[in-house]
Amino acid sequence: MQLGIIGLGRMGGNIARRLMRNGHEVVAHDRDAAIAQSLVADGATHVDSLVELVQQLEAPRAVWVMLPAGEITEQTIATLAELMEAGDTIIDGGNTFYKDDIRRATALKLKGLNYVDVGTSGGVWGLERGYCMMIGAEKAVFEHLEPLFDTLAPGYGDLERTKGRNAPDERAERGYIHAGPVGSGHYVKMVHNGIEYGLMQAYAEGFELMQSKGSDALPEDQRFDLNLADIAEVWRRGSVVSSWLLDLTAQALAGDERLDHYSGAVSDSGEGRWTVDAAVEQGVAVPVLANALFSRFSSRKENTYANRLLSAMRFGFGGHVEPPKKD
Length: 327
Known about the structure:
Blueprint: E1 2-6, H1 12-21, E2 25-29, H2 33-37, E3 45-46, H3 50-56, E4 62-65, H4 71-83, E5 89-92, H5 98-109, E6 114-121, H6 126-129, E7 132-136, H7 139-152, H8 171-174, E8 176-180, H9 184-211, H10 228-235, H11 244-255, H12 271-282, H13 287-299, H14 305-318
Helix pairs in contact: 9-12, 9-13, 9-14, 10-11, 11-14, 12-13
């Protein structure tokens, strides 16, 4: 299939590359022309403007917007809406608030345009591992675009199939789902990221607890000088707390057990706040997710081992660079 992609950063560029490796045609645009040009060697068609991008695509067009949530995405979609024609589709693969998806889809439908929201997880590793996708769209629109999603997804891989699962739809086992109508994809991804906050916080607090066991404040016979890199490594192998986040933790500790490369100022990218807001709106108790979010707020004042480990994990899966250390 042919696809336009706007925004070629950590994930957008690799989404384009994964599609092209598997026979799809990509027309690419980024405000930084040098970034867009880097995809030309991989087979992309580079364009300098949204006008040119739309002109290069054949109807019915599909354009994937992979930009930060907020004004830049709003402006880009508004511009595309003026340039595209009835039957064309705008896909938002960033971390947009799901209510914004619903609002946009309603406005675009008046112009005859389709809107799809894709909650996309996979970070900087997606090119090789594939992307987990949660997709909100009208069913017919989803099915038309499905060859793209099937290519981007990890596929069955070497995971053991879930015992007792008899669902006729195997898309989830391949790494993508039609979550429901517009907005549902980003809603599921929002909760996914809220859970991510909680999991990361649990690892970070546990490793700080072990790291502090050698403290001079403890009786000498109760101090342990624990090798955290070894602990992370052994937990990866057969433990019930093994996970990709633990893999990244082990990788970070193998290179720098003290994590001195990190200041421990941990940003939150929006989805954690939205998850807590949704919990309040829906009357659902989420104390772990809420506390994980508040811990990120406090991290900007407290340089703790737990916060440095959170920074290391965020960099590991998403290439998120923390604010620079202050002298």
